[in-house]
Design brief:
- This protein has 92 residues and is mainly α.
- The protein has 5 helices and no strands.
- Helix 2 crosses helix 3, helix 2 runs parallel beside helix 5 and helix 3 crosses helix 5.
């Protein structure tokens, strides 16, 4: 986990957050939902998913570099945005 934290610097965290914001905004435009809800979900997914994988022992992230970490952030953002849409997207 420490190796992963060494690879992920401040720039990577900023890029992951930006990926989350963009994915959240895209989801809000496509679904017509709350921008804030989807942006928060996107940022949380993009930042947390690489760390979750590293904690589970996926060591390829630490060795592969920034591009794979950012791709993993995109996957995490999409997963969490889809979950938020499935759980809270229905209007009463």
């Amino acid at each position: 986990m420490e190796t992963f934290l060494d690879v992920v610097g401040a720039l990577a965290l900023i890029l992951l957050a930006l990926i989350g914001v963009v994915s959240g905004l895209i989801a809000a435009v496509i679904t017509g939902g709350s921008k804030a809800k989807y942006v928060i979900a996107g940022v949380l997914g993009a930042v947390a998913f690489p760390f979750i994988l590293a904690a589970l022992g996926v060591t390829a992230l630490a060795g592969a570099g920034l591009v794979l970490i950012l791709f993993t952030g995109v996957v995490g953002a999409v997963i969490l945005v889809v979950l938020v849409k499935a759980l809270f997207g229905r209007k009463s």
